[in-house]
Amino acid sequence: MAIRTPKTREALARLLAPLRLEASVFERAVSLAAAESRTFSPGAPKSAPEFTRWARTIETTHEGLMLLQLGWRRFDPDNLPYFLQPDLNLGLIVSSGNAFTGVTYGSPTTKNPKGSAFARRVDENGAVAMFGQPTEEGEVNVDDVRILLYDERDGLVHLELSRPVGRLGSYVNNWSERIIFPAFDLALGAFGFEEDDDEGDFGFKIARR
Fold first, then answer.
1. Which domain holds residue 74?
2. What pLDDT does 201 receive?
3. Does position 20 have pLDDT exceeding 90, yes or no?
């Protein structure tokens, strides 16, 4: 498993550019979703804050990707919000993660059990099991998918863009590559980039025994 930990905005941009993504899309999504999840009183359903955070993250990510005008498209197969970059055969899904999201000392999993529409994308044998997606130019066979994982704790939203290669039951828990963003500081309203010297992204690999 390759883990990338860019420390500066420039280093993160270099990792996202080949995927036709920009950090600003996720920065805005995390900020707005966190703010709206705090609008509920104790009288609201217990699931309201986290559901709203998930829904607003997807909505704002959608808006940001469309504004990029880099070829991203939106589909909802089996009511699963799903983004597609057909030129790259690349898919993107948004999900909450567990407490190991955004850190290098553990391997994250999706926070909640996923339904069949989600689970089918990553089969139990460790292969990405994607599906054809119709476009105006014909069907696109998606052979790469990334999951945007997020988890809030201690005043920070931890975020990563990771490539799944396996799951345990209804939880995605195995990854071939993780791009870990600097944590989003809710007090500052921004990612905690180090803006001094850009020494490139730091990365390493973990070999499975």
1. 2-194
2. 58
3. yes
